[in-house]
Amino acid sequence: MKKRWSITITSEDEKGSKNIKIPPAGVIFIVSFIVVLIAIFAIETLVLLSFRDDLSTVAVLKIKEHDRKHQLSVLEKKVENLDRELGLLRDFNSRLSDIISGGTGSSGVDKDKDNDASTNDLKSEIATENFLARTLHSRIRDISDIIYGEKEVSKDLLAQLERKRSIIAHTPSRWPVKGWLSCPFGTRRSPFTGRRTFHRGVDISAKKGTPVYATADGIVTSYGRQGRIGNLLVINHGYGIVTRYGHLSKNQAKPGQYVHKGDVVAFVGNTGRSTGPHLHYEVLLNGIHVNPRRYMLK
Question: Which of 40, 62, 107, 202 is the most buried (most CB within 10 A)?
């Protein structure tokens, strides 16, 4: 005889009760149904928890994606700024080089265009953001290295330019006094002995008291009576150049004083062995007397 399960249902007032008999197959069905419901609930719970985690992951990825795009934008801007700085630096160096060599310089605009074009080409060739980031970092390093090299070139060019400017400032290039040339440099017949002698400078006739100017930047090394040449003032201009001013009435600049081209350093006189008021002017290069007329440009 097959076993049966029974369920007794009793009312609250206990006036009556009802028994429901369930065969074993029914019990198995009910239990299975309950188990399935529990399983479905558990699965849905796991799915919801997983979905919530996925939403959190997506939110984090979106934040990371935004940060990565921002970083790429910053890197691209930095590359553009470095390209622009490099173009300006190269243009500056080009102008310095042209100034030193006596040219006119170039605008450097084409270089900036080339740099912009290279950046655009770089953008069009990048396939992924990660590769773009690596490429931009590499480009920044390359440009930084180039800029460092160009800055070193700038320092060298500026040093050359400063040296050239200094040489120009310390090289005689003007008349030492306003007057007229009365005796040139070289062999001449002495007005005192009538014999041919070597005149180591030029004589410039002018009225007594006429200002005498420094013909270049330099330091006054001495002033005093020097025999036949009278009162003599000497200026050392550096680079092996020395100028001497003779027959002076008095000096304006003192020994040890630094003077600039065009400064009044003395006044025309008639001291020493002289036939009249004039300035005897000499230029020495590395200790050798040279023709001052080469340095009397204006």
Answer: 202
Rounded CA separation 151/142 (Å): 14
pLDDT, tens digit, 9 for 90 and up, residues 161-186:
788 888 999 999 999 999 999 999 98
Which residues are within 8 A (CB) of 270 and not within 5 positions of it... i.e. 6 or more apart? 208, 230, 247, 249, 276, 277, 278
Rounded CA separation 172/62 (Å): 74
Alpha-carbon separation of residue 245 from 10, 266, 271 (angstroms): 143, 9, 12
Q: Residues 218, 238: contact at Cβ < 8 Å?
A: yes
pLDDT score of 65 more than 60: yes
Nearest CA-CA partner of 245 in 217, 285, 278, 274: 278
Cut 0.85: pTM above it: no
* Domain 180-295: top CATH class: mainly beta
Contact yes or no for 86/143 (Cβ under 8 A): yes
Length of the chain: 298
Angle separating helix axes 129-169 and 24-101, nearest 10 degrees: 20
